[in-house]
Every structure is written in C-alpha cells, then in structure tokens.
Amino acid sequence: MLMRYILILFLCLTTVNSYGQDSTATKTPTKVKGTIISTTTEGPLSEVNIVNINQVVGVATNEDGQFEIKAKANDTLHLSYLGYKSIKVRVTNDWLKFGNTEIVMTELALALEEVTVKQLRLTGYLEVDMKQVPIQSNNRYRISGLYGRGYEAGKPNIATKVLGAIFNPADFLYNMFGRKPNEMHKLKKMKEDDEIRNQLARRFDREMLLVLLQVNKFDLDEIVNQCNYSKDFINTANDLQILDAISECYEEYKVIKRSKDRKSGKKKNKA
After folding, report:
1. What's the Rg (C-alpha) of the chain?
2. Cβ neighbours of residue 230 under 8 Å, at least 6 residues apart?
3. Which distant-in-sequence residues (6+ apart) come within 8 Å of 213 by Cβ?
4. Is 0.70 surpassed by the pTM of this model?
5. Pairing relation of β-strands 31-38 and 101-105?
C-alpha cells in the first residue's frame, strides 16, 4: 500500500515538473538581437541608432555591430546611421524565437552642395555696421550640467497661442494635437528614454522625430512655429531641443483643454 502511494506521488511530481519545463520552453521572448553589417566594408557598424517605433525605446549597436532591444512580434524597428540609408525592419515570431539576425545597411552616395556664405560688409563705422548684424531676441534658458549650451524657451504668449487652438477647430495645433493623441503620447515616452534622448541630442535631421510622431517635415516645423518658437530656433536646434519644445507646447495644450472641458461640463450640469 505504501509503495502505491509513493508511486502516485512520484507521477504527480513528474507531471508538474514536465509542465513547468514546457511552459518555460514556450514562453515568448521579449527582446530581439541582431548584428548590423555594412554593404561597403562587409564589417559591423557601431553606434547605429535603433528605435522601436511601437514601444518608443532605443538602443545603439556596440563595437561588434550587435544590439538587443525590447520588442514583440509585428513591432517595427527604425535603423539609422550617418551616411547610410535608413531602414525599417519588422519583428517576426521567427526572429524572436531563433535569436540573432544579421541586417545589412547600404551606404549613401554623398554629394556636397555648394554653400554660399553671406558676409557682412563692414564699413568701420560702428553705428552703420551694427545695423547689418541680425538681432535675435530669442528667450533662452540653460540646463544644469550642459556647459555653454542654452535652449530657447517659447515666447511669452505661447499659452495665448495654444488657447486659440483649443477654441478654433480649424487651427493647425488643434488638428495636430487633438487628432493625433497616440502620436503625441509618445512625446512623454521619448523624453523618459535616456538612449533616445542621447541620440536626439546628436542629431539635426529630424528623421527620428518624423518617424516616431508620424508627421512630415513641414508639419513638424509648423508645430514648433505655431508654438511661437522662432525660425532661428527651428533652423539651429538639435532634435532633442525640438522634442522639448513640442512637448512643452503639448503640455500647455492639455492643461488648457482640461480646464475648458471642466467648464463645459459645469455649464451642461447647470442646464
């Protein structure tokens, strides 16, 4: 009788252990690995910027061109590297299951454009020469830890501009902020991801912002312009500064919109 109980107990433990192993084996990985190779050198590319557009997380390849990033099936990865054609790669179940995948990037043919530099024609008379120097009245603020760098703040009437967008459905900001809530929600995630912020701080091409926010170059510049940032700021700011500018403007939009919604709700209740 005792042997019978021991046999039953042994079978139960074996079944539980097998189930646990099967569950572990079938667990879906939450990260993908890859290696980026150059078509020109056939060698690995280091410091390639990789961003998961869906989950808004970023990484960069190491010296061996390798990377590992959080992802799930059907997520899209955006790969970019200076001098190479940017590409998008879809994450598949096979990639998640079988591990490292080799991805090839193609070098662009770089053409140098002729740049004309407008020189100031100085006369030697201070009163005359001062009139030739462009005056920039941008409001700027410094960030602790970034020596010698300053960010431009929005002009004092930024809230007035955003307020106008709330009450005017035809306004550009209303259309961009109000009708793209999912894309605008990514702003917060982008600001919280250190790797993405580091990548944006080194870039001036707006490419990553366009991909993540799903807007074109004109709309991106127009958002910053409508938020009352100067053309000088738009033309000279790096991508991180543009991100912070849009984020500040969007936060103003949300605060004012919530206040407007509360007032509308009170009026309906009174009626």
Report:
1. 27
2. 136, 138, 152, 155
3. 180, 183, 184, 186, 187, 220, 246
4. no
5. parallel
Structure tokens at 248: 């500040």
Q: How far apart are the first and last CA of the chain?
A: 81
Instruction: Note the residue count of the chain.
Output: 271
Q: Quickly count: other Cβ atoms within 10 Å of residue 201's Cβ.
A: 14
Q: Which domains does the chain have, with CATH numbers?
A: 31-105 (2.60.40.1120), 134-270 (no CATH)
255: enclosing H helix or E strand: helix 239-270
- CA distances (Å), 241 to each of 117, 202, 234, 244, in order? 25, 11, 9, 5
Three-state secondary-structure class, residue 193: coil
Residues 6+ apart with CB under 8 A from 27: none
The rounded distance, in Å, linking the Cα atoms of 58 and 197 is 9
Q: pLDDT digits over 145-183, tens only?
A: 344 444 455 454 555 555 555 556 557 777 788 777 788
Say how many CA atoms lie within 13 Å of 256 toward its Cβ.
Answer: 20
**Each residue's pLDDT tens digit, 59-106:** 999 999 999 999 999 999 999 998 999 999 999 999 999 889 999 999
